[in-house]
Amino acid sequence: MILLNILVIVIGIFLCVGILTMLGMYLRSEVQHYYYYQAPTIRTYYSHFQLMKSQLHFDPEKKLIDLGCGDGAVLRFLAQYAHMKHLSGVDNNRIAIWYGLLVNRAFGHHTINLTYGDIQEIDISAYDYIYLFLVPKHLDTLQDWLQNNMKSDAIVVNNTFQFSHREVSEELRDPKTGSVFWIYKKSTSKLAE
Hints:
Layout: H1 2-22, H2 24-27, H3 31-37, H4 46-55, E1 63-67, H5 73-81, E2 86-91, H6 94-106, E3 112-116, E4 129-132, H7 136-149, E5 155-159, E6 170-173, E7 180-185
Helix pairs in contact: 1-6
């Protein structure tokens, strides 16, 4: 009976924190600024996880950063299914990061590093893989920054949306669901104008 009560309390906490995460943009003091200039946390769909599992093959010893990681669900997936050991994420949603840290602790994902902050203030030069699931408006502002700051052999994986001025190295698509990943490598030439 005591275990059941504890389980109900833990589930209740996770549900409450999950709801707060979804409503996080409304809890900030600058609601209007956030509404117009920031994207809310977008959940990665099950079909995207299945596409990752079947077609993305990451080296488990290399480092990956998720820019705009939300609560870190993609990182937890990669830790579990790709057995990656060096995972980091950054997001400007404090509640999503806090919730992700709570979930990571509860489920033993102690090797995933989640950080609150501005994506463009993070040093990405040490990462082999850069994962993004950002809306096109945000991708467009990151193209030059990524090109100038990523390792020469780093690989960028965009979920769903493409860069507008970058040549795609590879496209991974699930014909059944329409889920797509766009793979980019560092360009040795100038970005297309």
